[in-house]
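Supplementary Note 3. Input sequence used for the single-chain structure prediction.
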Amino acid sequence: MKKLLLVCCLVCFVAGGAARAQDTSKPANQDLEANALPDELLIADAKKNLKAAQLYYTRKAYVGALQRCEETMAVFQRFNKFDEVLYIAGMSSARLSRKEGKQPPTLAPEKYLILARQYLTQLVQEHPKSGFRKRAEEELRSIGEPAPQANEK
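The predicted structure, written as discrete structure tokens, is reproduced below.
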């Protein structure tokens, strides 16, 4: 349902943007205000997905947690809690690779292990000041992957 709403909003926004591009009677600042709306929708959707992912993760429903995180990662990478999204995605993937949790895995354990390494490495490299960094490094070491050097920004 929310995907449909998001797609509809984006289609309306794109169609409206094309119509506005032809209309020169509006001041330029109205276009800036109109462009802010999709970001607000994306932020709200990202927050909702993160909250659902947290709930799934605490209930050991790692497939659901991973799906919610991947949904957010695909749409809105500027989310201010993106480090937490990466952490939950990485840890859920790591646990699914060990066949833990209440939901049956949908991929082979090796694929989940690759995803875990990818998400946790991205967390360590792109968010060096994150509160999740140390736990991500520990998990990377436990799955046999040396923790990458953090890029200080």
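Residues 57 and 65 are 6 Å apart (CA to CA). The helical segments are 2-22, 28-58, 62-75, 82-97, 109-126, 133-142.
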